[in-house]
Structure formats: structure tokens, C-alpha cells
Design a protein that fits this description.
Layout (H helix, E strand, L loop, with lengths): L2 H12 L1 H7 L19 E5 L5 H7 L4 E4 H5 L5 H13 L4 E5 L15 H17 L4 E4 L2 H4 L7 H21 L3 E5 L12 H11 L4 E6 H6 L5 H6 L3 E6 L16 H9 L5 E4 L6 H17 L2
Parallel strand pairs: 1-2, 1-8, 2-3, 3-4, 4-5, 5-6, 6-7, 7-8
Helix pairs in contact: 1-2, 1-8, 2-9, 3-13, 6-8, 8-9
Length: 298
């Protein structure tokens, strides 16, 4: 599709207001405001229900599971049934999910199929609601990475158009789609919280928000001020240590600048430890205790 025609289609999909908000590309950004909130974040862990007993003993308040692995949107209802039963029986409730879209459903580039993507997402949202999950993080590096030679501004418009369609689908099931900024080693698109916040501010849908992954922020040398600027768009948080993506407390990383920024925007959402484990039973209690200690010392 010629560039001018592609942009005409995207302008029609997004609506004139969103398209105008995303053009010109060199603009300074949309002002973002914080929404008042009350208390401290809730701490949980990215893990399946097979580790629920250990997570409960460590003090995790919730599980964040793999959408692809546990909600299996491409699978039949019969295949989902035992996973649904396991999630509902978990002694620590699943409340969030990640690993949203597979690479076979690109959200940028010339091979996008928005209808197929939204059909997959609708199943994911419906199944999430059935088991009590209300947040699905949209990291999905393989889906959103921009093919070589494809214009960045067209990819941004495509992605915004996808989010504009996902928002109402998510709302219908009481789910929020939360876009995650990922480091450059994982994707060439939306590497910083400030980039993701700009897209969401343009889309302006209450069920499209942002996951701030402090591990990726550290890897990208993105400071805590981005969290303050993103304000109300920050809906969910992931955390791990910078060097080896270990759980808090292993290398002694000080997360307090980022936790202080979350406190400044009165963030009371969830913070999931998403890391590489060597010994889950030993490392998770230390990780949660480390975060509690750093939160308590702000």
C-alpha cells in the first residue's frame, strides 16, 4: 500500500483527533497529569499457579501469569478448561497477565491483520475476566517490532489504531491493556516509558494504559522522572535488578528513586517481580522483603 494511502486508512481508523495528536512527530509530547490515589502498591510475582503455595508463603498478594501459556487464546475451550480450573483454584489469585500477542500477529508493518489480532485479543480478554485477571501487559516484542525499512511514523499510527480497537474490547470484559516499554535489545519500537505514554495519551481510552518495567528502564538509562511525567497512564509495574534480571535483594539494587517517583504520582497499583529465578523458594521472600523495606524507607 502506498504511504499516502496507508496514512489515509490509519487516519480513518484512528479518527482525526488521535491522528492530529500523533502528528507532527517532532512535537514535544502531550502534557500528562497525575491522578490522586491513596496507599502503597501491592506486591506480586510473575508465576503460574504451580508455584502458588510458595508464593503465598512468601507473602505475594497475586500472580501474574503468561497469557499465551495460561489463557491460551489460540486454543479451544476444551484445551483452556484445565488451565481455567487451575487458575480458579490457585491459593494466590491471578490478577495480571503478560506475553500477550504472538509474533504471528504483527501489530506494526505491512503484514498486520487487525481483525485477526482483535479476534485473538477478544478471547484473551474474555478468558482473563473468567479467572479474575483485570490487567494484560502488552509487551509482545515480536509482534510490535518494526520490519526493516518500514516508516516509524506509520508504525506508530498502526499501533495507535490497534490500541484504539483493543480499548473497547478490553472494557467490555473489565480488562485493561497495559503497553510495556521494552529495552532496545528486545524490540526497536517503544523503548522508553515516555514513548509509550505519548501513544496512550493520544489514544485516550480508559482501558489502554502503561506498564512501567523498572528493569527495562534501568537498561535504557531512563530515569525515574519519566514515571512522574507519565502520571495517570502508569497502570502496572514490573521490577527486577539491572545486571542479570535477578529478583530484588540479590545484587543489592536500590530501586528507591523509581519507587519514590511512583509515590509522587500516588501510584497504588500492582508491582510484579518479573525476573530470572535460580531458587524461587529462597529468592521470592527476599525479593518481596527488599521491596517492602525500600518502600518503607521512602
Amino acid at each position: 500500500m502506498p504511504t499516502c494511502d496507508r496514512r489515509s486508512v490509519l487516519r480513518a481508523s484512528l479518527g482525526a483527533g488521535v491522528y492530529a495528536a500523533l502528528e507532527p512527530w517532532a512535537r514535544a509530547g502531550v502534557p500528562l497529569a497525575a491522578t490522586p490515589r491513596d496507599a502503597r502498591p501491592t506486591l506480586g510475582v510473575c508465576s503460574g499457579p504451580e508455584r502458588a503455595q510458595l508464593a503465598r508463603a512468601a507473602g505475594a498478594a497475586y500472580l501474574e501469569v503468561s497469557c499465551a501459556g495460561w489463557l491460551v487464546p489460540a486454543a479451544s475451550e476444551a484445551e483452556f478448561a484445565p488451565k481455567r480450573a487451575a487458575l480458579l483454584a490457585s491459593s494466590v489469585p491471578p490478577r495480571a497477565a503478560n506475553s500477550f500477542l504472538p509474533g504471528s500477529l504483527p501489530s506494526t508493518g505491512p503484514k498486520t491483520d487487525p481483525d485477526a489480532l482483535c479476534a485473538y485479543a477478544e478471547v484473551a480478554f474474555r478468558r482473563a475476566a473468567e479467572v479474575g485477571i483485570d490487567t494484560i501487559t502488552f509487551g509482545s516484542s515480536a509482534s510490535r517490532s518494526i520490519p526493516e525499512g518500514f516508516p516509524l511514523r506509520d508504525a506508530e499510527l498502526q499501533f495507535a489504531a490497534v490500541l484504539a480497537r483493543l480499548g473497547p474490547l478490553a472494557r467490555a470484559h473489565g480488562v485493561t491493556v497495559s503497553v510495556e516499554a521494552l529495552q532496545q535489545s528486545e524490540t526497536n519500537f517503544l523503548n522508553r516509558v515516555e514513548d509509550a505514554a505519548r501513544i496512550e495519551a493520544a489514544v485516550q481510552h480508559e482501558n489502554v494504559r502503561l506498564t512501567a518495567d523498572i528493569f527495562h528502564m534501568l537498561r535504557e538509562d531512563e530515569g525515574a522522572e519519566s514515571l512522574r511525567a507519565a502520571g495517570e497512564w502508569v497502570h502496572h509495574v514490573h521490577i527486577a535488578e539491572k545486571a542479570k534480571r535477578t529478583a530484588p535483594g540479590q545484587d543489592g539494587d536500590d530501586f528507591r528513586p523509581y519507587l519514590r517517583a511512583l509515590a509522587a504520582i500516588e501510584y497504588t497499583g500492582r508491582v510484579s517481580i518479573e525476573c530470572r529465578w535460580s531458587d524461587f523458594e529462597r529468592e521470592l521472600p527476599l525479593g518481596l522483603a527488599t521491596l517492602e523495606e525500600q518502600l518503607g524507607s521512602l
